[in-house]
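Protocol step 4 of 6: structure prediction from sequence.
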Amino acid sequence: MAPSGFLTGTGENASSNVHPFYLHSDQSLIEVTLVAAAVIAPLYLRHKLKEIDMPTVTQTVREIALNQPSSIRVFEEFGIDYCCGGRKPLGVVCAEKEIEIDEVLAALASAAAQTVPVSKDWNKASLKELSDHIVSRHHSYARQELPRLHTLAEKVVKRHGSKHTELPEIQSALKSLDQELTQHLAKEEMVLFPYIAKMEGALVEGKPRPESCFGTVANPVAMMTKEHDAAGALLAKIRELSHNFTLPEDACPTYHGFYDSLKEFERDLHQHIHLENNILFPRAIDMEASIAA
C-alpha cells in the first residue's frame, strides 16, 4: 500500500521537494499528459513526414496532385489550378499568383501528415472503373447542379443585377459553361470512354487494338483537353467577376446560396478535370501504345 500522502499530498511524504505528480493526482496526470503530448507530437509529425515524398518548388502542380492526393484541398484553398494549368512548377505558379511559397509548402506538409484516409488511388484502378466513376460522380453532379445554378442566377440577377453589374456577366459565363459541358460530357460518354473500355478489354484478352473512327486515342484526348481548358477559363472568369466569390453587404440568402454553390461546382469540376487530364487520358495513351495494332 502506498504511504499516506503518496497521491494526496498529506502525511509524511508531503513536502516542497516532492514531485508534482505525487501531490494532486488528477491535475498532475493532466500536466504529465500535456507535457508528453508536447514532446511526442513533433516527433510523430517528423516521423510521418519522413514517410512521405514531400513536394518541391520545381515539381509541377500536376505531379504533386498525383503523388499526394491530400494536396488537392490545399490547392483549392490557395486558388492554384491543378487540373487544366497543372503543368507549371509550383514555384512558378506561386510567383505568378503572388503567394508565399513557404505557406503553401507548410500547408502541403500539414495535409500530408494527416491520418485521414485518402480517396481511392485511381492510378491503380482499371480505366473502366475510373471512367465509370467519373460519369456516375462528376458527370451526374454537373447535370444535376447546372439547372439549379441557372435558377439561382436568374433570381439573384433579377433582384440584385441592377446594382451589382457583374451578376449578369456571371450568368452569361455560366450559360456558356453549361453549353460547353453539355456537348463535352456527351462526347466522352458516347465515344471516348466506350473506346477506352474496349481498348482495355483487348489488352486483357491479348487482342489487337480495336478500330476507331478517330485513328489514335490521342486525337479525341487532345480535343477533350482543349475543351477542358475552355471550361477552366470560364470558371476562372466567374471567379474573377465575383471577386473570388466575395459577397456584398446587401447579399440576400439566395445570393449566399448562389455563390456557395458556384464554389462547390468549381471544386468538383476541378477534381473532375484532374481525374481525366492527369490520370485517365495519359494512362489511355500509354495503354494504346502497349497494344499491338
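Step 5 (inspection) to follow. The radius of gyration is 27 Å.
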